[in-house]
Amino acid sequence: MKGTLRVSDVVHLGDIVAMDYDLPEALGRQLDISSLPGIGMLDEALSIREIKAEDLLDEGTTPRQLHVVYQVFKSVKTPEALIIPSLHFRFKGDPPQEFDTTTRTLTIEPLIPAETLLEQLDIRAPHPPHPIDTQTALDRLIQWLGAFGAALLLLLLRHWRHLKRTRPFEAIRRRCAKALTLRHQRQGLETAVRLIHRALNQTYGHTLFEKDLPHFFEDQSRFSSEKASLRDFFILSDAVFFDPAFDEHHYPEASHLLKRLLEGLIKAERGQKG
To answer: What angle do helix axes 251-270 and 185-204 make, rounded to 10 degrees?
Structure first.
């Protein structure tokens, strides 16, 4: 069974060789794919890279065609004959019919012709590796890190502003803690009380007075657990700013009350139960 060669009769190491074998439909049998050779080395000179049966329309007839792709793996110093061996396969049936393709002879030539003199070969000295401009890469890295840092700073700023708007008690936590550690305790207490008043006003929507607490708890039910503490806070606020009898003996208790109140307000602000 003859095959059609799709490339030149002269090949070299590494070349791809495609062959098409026509299989007449008149046989009336189905090709047994399992009888075909597998992908891989065929012999010491050739390997099979692809093998498949194809249907082709040709002037009203429908022949089957076996398409085989080989690759040359043989290196030679002088031209030699390269034989594409016969492939054995069969058609299903009872009994099955077996066939062989015809062999095909090609010429394999060396990649460098034998008559080429060594002096004719352009053998160049190895080139040293090209130096890499690391400064450009470093500049780009610095620019990227700068842009990343600016973006991160912007995100943190937005997050801080968001917390300041939505969690005013969380926003004053550090300033209150710092104020309550001041050496001048009276000044620290006044600062902490003002900060808590400001956070309460922001949460309420406008200035919150003691008489407004029932409405505040109705509107902001998450702070209901701090009813007693907030009433004590307003009493303490009046004492800090207006009671002449409020002196340094009251500072420790007042500081403890403010810390405990702020902790409870922060938990309530987060939706946590005390």
So the answer is: 30
